[in-house]
TrEMBL record, chain A:
This is ABC transporter permease. PROSITE patterns: ABC_TM1. Residues 95-321 form the ABC transmembrane type-1 domain. The keyword Transmembrane applies. It comes from Paractinoplanes ovalisporus. Coiled coil: none annotated. It is found in: Cell membrane. It comes from the Bacteria.
From TrEMBL, chain B:
It comes from Paractinoplanes ovalisporus. InterPro entries: BP-dependent_transpt_permease (IPR050366), MetI-like (IPR000515), MetI-like_sf (IPR035906), OppC_N (IPR025966). Residues 109-301 form the ABC transmembrane type-1 domain. Pfam families: BPD_transp_1, OppC_N. Belongs to the binding-protein-dependent transport system permease family. The chain crosses the membrane at residues 42-63, 113-141, 148-168, 174-192, 224-244, 283-304. This is ABC transporter permease. It is found in: Cell membrane. Keywords: Cell membrane, Membrane, Transmembrane, Transmembrane helix, Transport. It is a multi-pass membrane protein.
TrEMBL record, chain C:
Residues 87-473 form the Solute-binding protein family domain. This is ABC transporter substrate-binding protein. Keywords: Signal, Transport. Gene3D superfamilies: Dipeptide-binding Protein, Domain 1, Dipeptide-binding Protein, Domain 3, Periplasmic binding protein-like II.
From TrEMBL, chain D:
It is found in: Cell membrane. This is ABC transporter ATP-binding protein. The lineage of its organism: Bacteria, Bacillati, Actinomycetota, Actinomycetes, Micromonosporales. InterPro entries: AAA+_ATPase, ABC_Ni/Peptide_Import, ABC_transporter-like_ATP-bd, ABC_transporter-like_CS, Oligopep_ABC_C, P-loop_NTPase. It is a peripheral membrane protein.
Amino acid sequence: MLRVISRRLVQLVVTLLALMTLVFFWLRSLPGGPVDALLGERATPQTRELLTRALGYDQPIWVQYGRFLKNVVTGNFGNSIRTGEPVTEVISRAFPATVELAVAAIIIAIGLGVPLGYLAARHRGRLLDNATIIVTLVGISIPIFFLGYLLKDWLTQGLHLFPPSGRISTGMDNTDVTGFFVLDGLLTRELDASADALWHLVLPAVTLATIPLAIIIRITRASVLDVLDEDYIRTADAKGLRNPTIRKRHVLRNALLPVVTIIGLQTGALLAGAVLTEKVYNWGGLGTLITDSIGGSRDYPVLQALILLAAAVFVVVNLLVDLSYAVIDPRVRVR
Amino acid sequence: MTRALSDHKRRRIDELIARTSEPGGVSLLRDAGRRLLRNPTAIVGGTIILLFLVIAIFAPLVAPHDPIQRFPELTQKLTVDSIPGATAGHPLGSDPLGRDFASRMIFGARQTLFVGVLATLIGLLIGVLLGALAGAIGGWVDNLLMRLTDVMLALPSLLLAITLVALASRSTQWTVIIAVAIVNVPIFARLLRGSMLAQRESDHVLAARALGVKRRDIVLRHMLPNSLTAVIVQATLTFAVAILDAAALSFLGLGDPDINRAEWGLMLGVDGVRYFEVRPELAYFPALAIILVALGFTLLGESIREALDPKNRR
Amino acid sequence: MRASGKGLRSALAAGTIAVLTIGAAGCAESDRDNGGGEGSASGGTFIFAGAGDPKNFDPIFNDDGESFRPIRQMYDTLITHKPGTAELTGGLAESWENDASGKVWTFKLRQGVKFHDGSPLDAAAVCANFDRWFNMKGEAAQSQMIYYQDVFGGFAGSKDAVYDNCKAQDASTAVVTMTRYKGAFPGAFTLTAFSIASPTAMKQYDSDTVTQNGDSFSYSAFANEHPTGTGAFTFGGWNKATGEITLNKNADYWGDKAKVDKMIIKIIKDENTRKQELRAGTVQAIDYPAPADRKALADEGYKVLDRPAFNILYLGINQKNPKLKDLRVRQAIAYALNRAQLVQTKGPGGAAVADEFLPNTVLGYAQDVQKYEYNVDKAKQLLSEAGATGLTLNFYYPTEVTRPYMPNPQEIFTVLANDLQAAGIKVNGVPRPWNGGFKDDVQQFGKQDLHILGWTGDYNDPGNFVGTFFGRGKVEFGDQAMTEMFDAIGKADATVDQAAKKTAFEQVNRDLAAKWLPAVPIWHAPPALATTKNVEGLVPSPLTAEEFNTVSVTK
Amino acid sequence: MPLLDVRDLSVTFERRGTRPVRAVDGVSFTVEPGQTVGLVGESGCGKSVTSLAIMGLLPRRGNKVTGEVRFEDTDLLTLRPKDLRDWRGRDIGMIFQDPLSSLNPVIPLGVQVAEVLERHQGRTRQAALREARELLDAVGIPDPARRLKEFPHQLSGGMRQRALIAIALACKPRLLIADEPTTALDVTIQAQILTLLKELVDDSGTALVMITHDLGVVAGLCDTVNVLYAGKVVERAYRHDLFAEPRHPYTHGLLQSVPRLDVDRGERLHQIRGSVSDNIPWPEGCAFAPRCDRLVDDCIGETVPLEPTFRGGALRCTNPVPKEVAV
């Protein structure tokens, strides 16, 4: 097991280095770039010249690359052009926000998706099943930013059921411990802050959960149907086992194998969905950071780090999925 | 043990293909076709797509007006906070620039088809080429290409598309199409490679090899055609994703910058969102159209996959 | 082997808990609404939704409105504007004088003003600020002093430097001597970038340390955590995770003390979300409501406050293209544009067609310039006279950006291009990302034939408008040798006598319209503010330089 | 009184959008306590469906089952599905064809054996596992204590089938249905498993219904044999009678197509032409007619009844193979 992990990590590092080099040279070849982004509309040619020198862009490209590489290896991704903070700080602040949102979405997706998919499979061909299939198909086909807009318009404007945006009410003055606001409130006994954060979390999480939910329902349904067809279920039936036992012991466990894989594959989709969801709900996470780093400002240092982070998260999550797979499926464990 | 762990995701994709691309030739296809026609899901999906295609192809005949012409009778009443609704000659009223919204919706089918088909096709062609190379040659070529797709698969699709658009110095319709296409390259490459590998060991290929058929001919005549069924299914499903991704890019302000172009994703992501309170129809109609078409392609793709699945052959 | 069952159960349980807690959260929130704000005799909290992150709070290192908004509340400038206008009035200086040469500025400072750290604002402190700017070390720091570079020409040792020295004549008299006269003064003294900061605090928190890191810069503790000025609000904190900047009432403020105890600037980048938060009552005021939402908001009883227009959108014409060197072709373009219709269909409320490159409140605005009323026939006629029929032009426009003067560049481009096509000019639209190529292509390389761009004025001076665009050779407009125009503007700008300056600039504006036409002015589009009904005393500033000490929130 | 009395059992598949298919068509047979009865036929003849119908294991949707399945005094078909579960595993055990897929891949073997004891005999997990170890031992699995913790994929094919037998016999049922229990196994293993089955059945007095296409299996094991074709019993006889004097052309053909050592090497093996799917397209008549060498007009005109022959046998044929024709 250790060998697998270390091999994966080495692979990850190599992949990231390659990606980084690619991104570096690509960015340098673009017009505009950091100089443009750092200068406002008021900049005079002198300022531009000053800045070019200050950033070392007048030096040969390989000198720049060497410096960049040295920085990155020492964990220094530079400063954000937009806010002037170290990139690591900017990202570590946004990271918990997105994780909070993504975890909430995953909880919704799994918590609803697995039971619904299971029910649909059990009632195959009946109303519940058909309704579920149609809803999931629409769920996959709807542009989620539009869904977010609709939810927001209906539930926060006409009906003031939920707050329209943000992670917590303005002026809540919550104590920031971990960056996960719901958790922080619990840790610091600021229960009102925790509840408020949770209340803000509902709509974005539901929006973000839409696609994974639909996919998990479909996979669970298909997987349960597959398993129900398996010979070992017939064996279990032949043993005279009671239905609940069969379902719990024989059907679910096997049916969840592909679902676990899909959840891993969905992490990437979640990050992509977060870009849209966070923009809709002004959620200060990685998604917003990506949008902010591109739209208009071209905050290349942040963008660079974000690409690396996304790739790393994806690889790590999939490693975790593989490991969890090994825990659930004895066949993988031993082979 | 290591292989089993690290490669199971790839195996999963490969398995999917092995299932759908079992050798069986014509009778399998005819069989699948028959099952398809009996499947109501396929019929609904097919009807939606057919309708969509007809509208797209015959847009100039169906649409009442030129989609980019601004009409004085509409601009007269147009201000930034009120957009005229249906009037004589303009059944759906105006868009934010005084153009005929109905015509734009109709021409939208054409542009959306264009974006979706091209994004899918380009992704498919490059992917199939790489996958076929990897699958047919194997060895270090295979290794290199698969590592490349690993890197690409490491980034979530929309994120990759966003990055590509952001990194392109110019934004045009093609930036969007190519970004969405590139996202799909690794998927197609993996798919084809897996299918080819599965077939390399299959009976009919072994038989052909035993008969002394040239390797190139085996690849071109025997392996490729069989692998393509899986690719076609994937392409149908990819189309839906492509138009959704294009819409998302527009929403993020990274889409096709030419708002003269009537493309549903663009109309929804830019005008639809911006003028949602002034005239929600500007969002509802394109959104509905996108959902319907995406649904149609998903339905059709899934039913083709189902029809080709040997498990359903009884 | 029972894990799966358990997993499912606990997931369901978690869901249930979540639902229950949401219910509880709803209750908690309503309690808060009832409890907060009212009752106490205090002024309460004013929450204002801004549109973007500030960079930092050291005035001299900033150049954008989102940074200036909080800075302006915490600092004061020597000279400022009368609320709601672009007219000058005393700030930290009660009065100011310019000598006959135009080089020496004498400021009479207000007595008894204290910085937030308790140190006194005196002539020495003012001079310390001027000297700090002038003597700033390091390319990193200098490259970020964009306004200083623009107004003061350069730093210590530079021959272009405008600043010479500052003397504290007595505790309340500061005398600033320049190397030469510059028309930007005294208007430029109102720039928020030139706010006066506490020298004690700057020294304590190492304000001048700007370090490069990767492709950008780090700023000092002074800039980030300890901004110290004389303003009506003191710095409370910047919670970057929630995007909230908290400002507290300065009880010792020298002017009108803030009516609210606390002000929060909440950063909400999406205009639609700002509006929704306003409706949800979670913020009391928002900046830049979308033009499309103004009517709806007003109908629902919100106050939509227009700032008097102080900006300009123009269509730039690049005379590097020989066809465009012909005045008749440029005039044809002007005639071809139906600007009245553009203003009607796409202009935000209060927008007006622009005939000159500066708003009519600025000195030197001429009443009688040549106007180009929409006239397609005239345009076609001029084109054929110039032998320029069948002209094809590359029209550059930016994407990924909105500006107060340009709320929607794509729509504006589309409409303008449409008009040009109607007059027989073929338009080849070239979209470029704002920071990812547009500024480079247009202002560095001059690849375009036509482009749209604009400007928001910094202070009330014609030089800040026409001088910025046409005062020197710029790639943007192609011709480096329009010496007649450069000279005329340079001379007008250098005129010390205000009446003479006015006449000179009026002539410049007439010539710009009739003779030179380097660009076509399109519109002045005032950006708006919107507030809830219970917000009083918010005076919109043409320079988007609102001060919030006058704001009160009634129940 | 027979232990199991199947009377006129019919199963019809009714899928939406397709013509109903009658997979089992009026099958009747009996099993006496301790007796071993064979159901023989090619794949697709309905023998597996018959066994599943007896066990109530056919999917409820899309299938119509009629007739009677009397187990002692109870008609299993009239039981509520929930109640039938009390019988399965306790009174009737079943073994399936593919031992790998018939075992749950993600559950340790011990639990899979133990759960049937927990279910029917109220054992605790601990007790059941102890008993499971003995059971595995009894079916000849070496080192049973270790195997209990292992997963199916870690076992060999033969061991898996032994495990399935252990599961089926755990509660000492009175009837065991074995559906092609050796088909998926190597020939050497096949013999072991059959021997094991025979021993166990003989020792415990369990009746066995053996479903197979392999006449060799029948020859070694069964007391009486039912030959099925197209969902119908076409011939029934004691083992000896059947092998000595097959009457139905189908049975005859089957026997002839078994390779034998006492035949000249050059002689071609007999084969029945066509396949099961070559059926006559109408309900009356003999389903085997299109493939039959002894076809006469009566075969396809009217329904051919199953008529008793000597010693409790039966035959469904208008033109049977004459008695004197030796095989």
